[in-house]
TrEMBL record:
SUPFAM superfamilies: FMN-binding split barrel (SSF50475). InterPro entries: Flavin_Rdtase-like_dom (IPR002563), Split_barrel_FMN-bd (IPR012349). PANTHER family: FLAVIN REDUCTASE LIKE DOMAIN-CONTAINING PROTEIN, FLAVOPROTEIN OXYGENASE. The keyword Protein transport does not apply. The keyword Transmembrane helix does not apply. It comes from Paenibacillus dendritiformis C454. Belongs to the flavoredoxin family. This is Flavin reductase like domain-containing protein. GO terms for molecular function: FMN binding; oxidoreductase activity, acting on the CH-NH group of donors, NAD or NADP as acceptor. Gene3D superfamilies: Electron Transport, Fmn-binding Protein, Chain A (2.30.110.10). The lineage of its organism: Bacteria, Bacillati, Bacillota, Bacilli, Bacillales. Residues 19-175 form the Flavin reductase like domain. Its cofactor is FMN. It comes from the Bacteria.
């Protein structure tokens, strides 16, 4: 079957994309607006870029109703700072609570019953219940359209990482203790370490 995405409505193209690019890690992004109101939202278009400098990125899409920017993107454009909190099984339910489209003045930490704790280098709060936090300063933003279905690529430089002591051993993260969650299509998620296998790279 051959499908040309430009011939589809963007929602139909979106369904094919998220049903093909699997599983996707989740960036649980906390920001703060210029007036001090915290914001918290999950994004599954999220990955690493490079290690020197340590850059990560996520891609917030425009709102599907009117093409407006999401509060996370608006806050990052205004302040140049954000935290990526890694999602493990313990916080998947409250994470899902924050996926709703709240009004900008709503504190999603409070709405989801999560605990905000201060960052050390930047202003946005971290999620205490998350086992790993990445404090980021904005490196660059690329915008791709301004209509429903469009999006932006937010690139952040990690200036400080917080890792729970129980996860850290010999400079590595214990995935079995992190219990990361991945996003599939629709309402489906996956436990990332429940069925893993070893495969050594060829030299």
């Amino acid at each position: 079957m051959n499908i040309a995405p430009h011939e589809l409505h963007w929602r139909d193209a979106y369904k094919l994309m998220i049903g093909s690019i699997l599983p996707r890690p989740i960036a649980f992004v906390s920001t703060i607006d210029p007036y001090g109101t915290p914001n918290l939202a999950p994004f599954s278009f999220f990955t690493a870029i490079c290690a020197e400098p340590l850059l990560i990125c996520f891609a917030p899409m425009r709102r599907g109703t009117d093409g407006r920017k999401k509060d996370t993107l608006v806050n990052i454009e205004a302040t140049g700072e954000f935290v990526v909190n890694i999602v493990g099984e313990r916080i998947v339910e409250p994470m899902n609570e924050t996926a709703a489209e709240f009004d900008p003045e709503v504190d999603e930490f409070q709405a989801a019953g999560l605990t905000p704790i201060p960052s050390q280098v930047i202003r946005p709060y971290r999620v205490q219940e998350s086992a790993i936090h990445m404090e980021c300063v904005l490196h660059d933003i690329l915008h791709f359209g301004d209509q429903p279905g469009a999006g932006s690529l937010v690139i952040g430089k990690v200036v400080l990482m917080h890792i729970s002591d129980e996860l850290y051993a010999d400079g590595k993260i214990d995935m079995e203790k992190l219990l990361p969650i991945g996003r599939m299509a629709g309402h489906v998620y996956t436990r990332a370490v429940s069925d893993t296998f070893m495969l050594e790279r060829k030299k």
